[in-house]
Write a structure and sequence with these properties.
The chain is α/β, with parallel strands linked by helices. The strands form two sheets. Strands 1-5-4-2-3 form a five-stranded mixed sheet, with helices on one face. The chain has a four-stranded parallel sheet with strand order 8-7-6-9, covered by helices on one side. The chain has helices at 2-7, 27-44, 69-82, 113-116, 154-177, 183-189, 210-218, 234-237, 249-256, and strands at residues 19-22, 57-64, 89-91, 98-105, 123-131, 200-204, 223-227, 242-245, 269-274.
Length: 275
């Protein structure tokens, strides 16, 4: 749903069976929830066969309302330490393998309840543990593995997904604004991948190459002039569609608009991106 996609700022994935009662505003509630988190993580995350010195899971914890996240994390770290599991399970906002989400379910219990809710131990919360997954959009784009096609380094990954997110936001916005327009109008307002097959693209300020890689893989461009005095990632430089012009944009444009057939792209560029 394009309208829903524009409205969502953050996604919490929870399981219907994990409905908890308590109060995260209290020390008792944090302790209670931390123990439940530990039990769920212990049963959900199995030991890896490769290197036992590595953590079984790297956990990112997100809580709503966010003000309860810090005290809950402190309590959870204490539970891990008490159970000699601090080496088995690590907590980190980046490079995580699993996401733990805890969300308070709003309940209206009549007038004046808002003032009394701090002492209410019957608040309801939903909880979920999800592995990092592209399908669920639960992923740390600062630590993407090379197999997903995003690149072989943090900088390449961040740039790759920055352009991906911008494109998806534009598609959602255009689809929404054109919902009452004709089919032809919607096509004009969206970027159809098949319209750019074997086309030529220009990426200005391209290093380390995340956007160049995205243009090649997503739009299937036959050639991308990747302009930047800096170095490209080896994974991008080695792609046959990449033409790295190691110079400033103002120096590259006269060459691209000139008569030299080896680099000339006059009148043939369909996509131009610049960061």
């Amino acid at each position: 749903d394009p309208i829903l996609a524009r409205a969502i700022n953050k996604l919490y994935i929870v399981q219907s069976g994990l409905l908890l009662e308590g109060n995260l505003a209290t020390e008792r509630g944090c302790d209670q929830f931390s123990k439940v988190m530990f039990d769920e993580v212990s049963s959900s995350c199995t030991q890896k066969d490769s290197d036992e010195s590595e953590p079984t899971a790297v956990l990112r914890v997100q809580v709503y309302p966010p003000k309860y996240q810090s005290p809950l994390l402190q309590n959870f770290e204490s539970i891990l330490y008490e159970n000699n599991a601090s080496q088995q399970f690590a907590i980190a906002p980046k490079g995580f393998t699993h996401m733990i989400s805890i969300v308070e379910v709003y309940q209206y219990k009549g007038r004046s309840w808002e003032e009394k809710q701090y002492d209410d131990n019957s608040k309801l919360y939903m909880m979920g543990i999800s592995p990092a997954s592209m399908e669920l959009d639960v992923v740390d784009t600062n630590n993407i593995i090379a197999e997903d096609g995003s690149g072989d380094g943090d900088d390449v990954s961040r740039a790759y997904y920055k352009l991906k997110e911008a494109l998806e936001t534009y598609q959602a916005s255009s689809s929404s604004s054109s919902s009452s327009s004709s089919t032809a109008g919607r096509r004009r307002n969206t970027l159809q991948k098949d319209l750019y097959d074997n086309s030529i693209a220009l990426d200005c300020g391209s290093a380390p190459g995340g956007w160049t890689k995205y243009l090649i893989e997503h739009f299937r461009c036959s050639k991308v002039y990747s302009i930047d005095p800096g170095s490209l990632s080896p994974s991008v430089e080695s792609m046959k569609e990449t033409v790295h012009m190691r110079m400033k944009v103002q120096d590259a444009l006269p060459l691209l608009l000139g008569d030299d057939e080896t680099v000339s792209a006059a009148g043939r560029v369909k996509l131009w991106v610049s960061d």
